[in-house]
Design goal:
Elements: H1 2-31, E1 34-40, H2 48-55, H3 58-61, E2 64-70, H4 74-83, E3 88-90, H5 94-101, E4 121-124, E5 140-142, H6 149-160, E6 170-172, H7 180-185, E7 191-194, H8 198-206, E8 210-212
Parallel strand pairs: 1-2, 1-3, 5-6, 5-7
Antiparallel strand pairs: 4-7, 4-8
Length: 215
């Protein structure tokens, strides 16, 4: 009987030692991950593959620990990268151009094309049956920051349909990117340009239509 207890005790000690070694190994392995601070311009369906990869641990399998932060607006993303608060920024490529043209020696570089097209949606305050871009004439659209990618692509889409963005409607560029939906909810503008999933949420809130308008 004594031999049995001695065997059980010895086995228990071995299991404890193995568990501690395994835990310490995993701990060291986690510490070996390269931490990347990533600033994204918005939480959007554009980046769904990234969210899945983070959740499923695909980055960690490659030795990368992603520290994801929301930094609303390309100007804010740019500032985060330039200041060293972020290692990589997801935003429109115009940010790199503005920094370079500003004469910065430590300028940013665009190294990837994450989205093939602009994915902004127009959300209307009133329901419009058989909507066309001509319905924007004489209206006010909260378009985003002047010189920002969403606002510039909105102007491009309007010109492609024979609409003068300067004279046929009013594109409000005074509202910061992060405040566009709040301003619209507060009663400002007839339309607002929003990313998904924010566009669907605001459309559901107002029980109105939203229209995909950009090619």
């Amino acid at each position: 009987m004594k031999k049995v207890w001695t065997f059980v005790l010895g086995l228990f000690i071995i299991l404890v030692i193995v568990s501690l070694v395994f835990f310490d190994f995993n701990k060291k392995e986690d510490n070996s991950l390269a931490k990347i601070r990533l600033a994204e311009v918005a939480h959007t369906i554009f980046y769904a593959p990234q969210y899945v990869a983070i959740e499923k641990g695909f980055f960690k399998e490659e030795g990368i620990d992603i520290d994801l932060m929301l930094t609303a607006g390309a100007d804010k993303v740019t500032a985060a990268v330039l200041s060293g608060d972020a290692d990589i920024g997801f935003s429109g490529s115009e940010a790199t151009i503005y920094v370079y043209n500003g004469g910065e020696k430590d300028y940013l570089k665009t190294f990837a094309q994450l989205t093939q097209k602009d994915g902004s949606f127009l959300v209307s305050r009133k329901k419009i049956d058989h909507f066309t871009l001509d319905d924007l004439k004489g209206k006010t659209v909260i378009g985003g920051r002047a010189g920002g990618m969403p606002e510039m692509t909105l102007e491009w889409a309007l010109r492609e349909h024979g609409i003068d963005p300067k004279n046929d409607l009013n594109i409000d560029t005074s509202v910061a990117f992060a405040a566009m939906s709040s301003a619209f909810i507060g009663g400002q503008g007839d339309f607002v340009s929003l990313f998904e999933v924010s566009a669907t949420k605001k459309s559901s809130l107002f029980k109105k239509n939203f229209f995909y308008t950009k090619n």
